[in-house]
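Progress note, sequence design subtask.
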């Protein structure tokens, strides 16, 4: 609909480093992973025709949010905690920060992280409510902000 290439930042970090996200966390810790994430994010700036999904942590480290705002259009999809928990509960093995957490622990973790990170997320050019967000609404928001 936008004639853009979609890139998941985690997938690109994995590809560039030839290690899974859990392996990167195990070998370099969260700060080391975030540094690699920043490098890959900034290397991807050359392309004008991409949409990059950063995940929840990337905007909150190394002034990444300010850098993204200076180099592109940023969108924060404000999604309810329960929806995020439902999405993560099945993927928690792949995500080192939530691995092994019960659903209740996951809900508490997400609430805490959202509280810590909201300042960064609220810097986005566009903020959309994400509970029942349709792709068309995201496309429209992007087209209206070119």
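Output:
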């Amino acid at each position: 609909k936008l004639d853009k290439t979609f890139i998941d930042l985690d997938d690109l970090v994995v590809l560039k480093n030839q290690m899974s996200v859990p392996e990167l966390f195990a070998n370099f810790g969260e700060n080391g992973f975030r540094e690699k994430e920043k490098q890959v994010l900034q290397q991807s700036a050359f392309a004008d025709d991409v949409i990059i999904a950063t995940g929840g942590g990337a905007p909150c480290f190394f002034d990444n949010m300010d850098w993204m705002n200076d180099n592109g259009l940023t969108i924060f999809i404000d999604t309810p905690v329960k929806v995020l928990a439902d999405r993560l509960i099945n993927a928690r093995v792949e995500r080192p920060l939530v691995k092994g957490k019960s659903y209740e622990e996951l809900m508490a973790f997400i609430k805490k992280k959202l509280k810590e990170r909201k300042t960064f997320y609220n810097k986005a050019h566009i903020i959309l409510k994400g509970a029942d967000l349709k792709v068309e609404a995201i496309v429209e928001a992007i087209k209206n902000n070119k």
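Residues 84 and 110 are 8 Å apart (CA to CA). Work on this subtask will continue into the next period as scheduled.
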